[in-house]
Inverse folding.
């Protein structure tokens, strides 16, 4: 574990750290929808600070008297880091040291949900203050209406897939949809008794992804090479402080994201 997380300073024995790490992984994995949809590069470590874009911008020469020199500066996409704090009661840590395996980590569950939502939202909808342009922001296609009637979802998804094909974007395709929309899908059976989820998978040639943090839905290609999530520090638990009763911890990640092919996704709203 990297030194900047300061885990060695926490009053937490190895047995408790394992429970915390295992719980964080269990809570995060099903919610990290975005990284199941895009190309994932990394982890490149805490020292990774920027993504090379392979481009330059022209600068004026130094000084007042230019003599024909040409000056260019490399353009990079800075890595953004974020932390979501949470607390663990020291009494629970002591119980873990005694062999308890059912310690109270409810605040970690909350933090994991928020961390996953941050990553999903940045990738799919962007993060303006961090300079991240999301998939729906970059899309060259006009958004399609989705609505709340799940029986109309196949039509919207089919139109989106058709748009991608007409733009020369090959599949397989996937549908990333907000939790409320996903619930409507799994609860709906079409005429003839066929689950709506199966119908949507047939249209996409791919899967329907439950995606916390998504507004509406997004149909996108999963052929690869269109969207890149560049990770420095992958999600990990670090130590901040403690007192007699609680230990202050946090979930941390550093990443950048870029859209390489804006034609490869259609937003559904």
């Amino acid at each position: 574990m990297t030194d900047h997380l300061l885990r060695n300073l926490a009053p937490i024995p190895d047995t408790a750290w394992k429970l915390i790490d295992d719980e964080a992984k269990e809570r995060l994995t099903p919610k990290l929808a975005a990284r199941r949809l895009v190309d994932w590069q990394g982890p490149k470590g805490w020292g990774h600070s920027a993504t090379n874009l392979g481009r330059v911008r022209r600068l004026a020469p130094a000084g007042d008297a230019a003599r024909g020199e040409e000056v260019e500066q490399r353009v990079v996409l800075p890595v953004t880091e974020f932390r979501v704090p949470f607390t663990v009661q020291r009494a629970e840590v002591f119980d873990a040291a005694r062999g308890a395996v059912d310690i109270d980590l409810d605040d970690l569950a909350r933090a994991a949900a928020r961390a996953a939502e941050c990553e999903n939202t940045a990738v799919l909808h962007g993060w303006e203050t961090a300079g991240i342009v999301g998939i729906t922001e970059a899309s060259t296609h006009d958004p399609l209406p989705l609505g709340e009637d799940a029986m109309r979802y196949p039509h919207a998804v089919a139109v989106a897939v058709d748009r991608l094909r007409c733009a020369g974007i090959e599949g397989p395709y996937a549908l990333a949809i907000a939790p409320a929309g996903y619930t409507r899908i799994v609860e709906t059976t079409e005429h003839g008794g066929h689950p709506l989820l199966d119908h949507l998978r047939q249209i996409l040639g791919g899967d329907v992804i439950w995606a916390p943090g998504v507004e509406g839905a997004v149909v996108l290609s999963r052929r690869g090479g269109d969207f890149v999530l560049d990770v420095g520090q992958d999600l990990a638990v670090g130590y901040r402080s403690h007192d007699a009763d609680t230990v202050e911890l946090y979930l941390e990640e550093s990443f950048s994201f870029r859209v390489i092919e804006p034609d490869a996704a259609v937003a559904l709203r």
Notes: The longest strand covers residues 246-259. The radius of gyration is 22 Å. The chain has one domain: 3-268. The domain at 3-268 is CATH 3.30.2400.30 (Major capsid protein gp5 fold).
